[in-house]
Amino acid sequence: MLQPPQLAIAVVVLYVAIALILWQQWVRPGKRQLAPMLLAAPALLLHTGLLSWQLFAVGGLLDFSLPNVASLVLLLVAAILTLAHHSLKSLLLLPPVYLLCAAANIPAMTETAHYFTSITGSTGLAIHISLAVLSYCCMFIAALMAVQVWLIDHRLKQHGPLHGLPPLMVVDRQLSLLLRVGFVLLSTSILSGWYFLESFFGHGQGHKAILTIIAWFIYGHVLWIDWRSGMSSKRMAILSIVSASVLTLAYFGSRLVREVVLG
Q1: Fewer C-beta neighbours within 10 Å, C or N terminus of the chain?
Q2: Where are the transmembrane segments (predicted)?
Q3: Which of 93-107, 141-155, 182-196, 202-216 has the lowest mean pLDDT?
């Protein structure tokens, strides 16, 4: 039976191979195209098994270390984009997402720091964590879609080739929808944190809440302007990326310093 380090190597190799195959299909389309779901299914399943092994610790504890949380988020993003790549027009986004999944599994090849958390008997904490993860996944996908919007807009203005790129209006509508869904999830995540967590604005947590609320205000501004008078695709894309960056700093900034920089 494969141990976590060997399983992590297999997952990384599979993700890199799938990314290369899909990139090759996009650059040089042929008559026979392999479906992303068919290609990615083994890697996603092995990734799920490896993450379950790492996430669920003994004694009912969950290991929410930075590598595990990043791996969880990217697994959900990869699964969503793979399953919905037709409706989301996300085929171009799959290779970089799979490469990010490969990078997220590299720490599993060695022993890393742990961050054990118990949610047993704490329904409020479980709800808040679930909403926070889902809202971040949605906004992360929106940021990826924003990059695609920016690329299409740039190609159109430069009269460059649009081979393999979806129509700008379609991707623009999808970005707007993702932002609305993500905004609702982020709002409920903030409310659940304020209601269920006593230390939501406490010592060591206040900066996370403040940065999250700043990201929430930026997202709200984007949606308000877009609903009221419309917003250009490029401006919406830029603000979506900025908001996602602030949200990433809120969720992972201090953890990155504590677990990686300070060891």
Answers
A1: N
A2: 6-23, 35-58, 64-84, 91-109, 129-152, 177-197, 209-225, 237-257
A3: 202-216
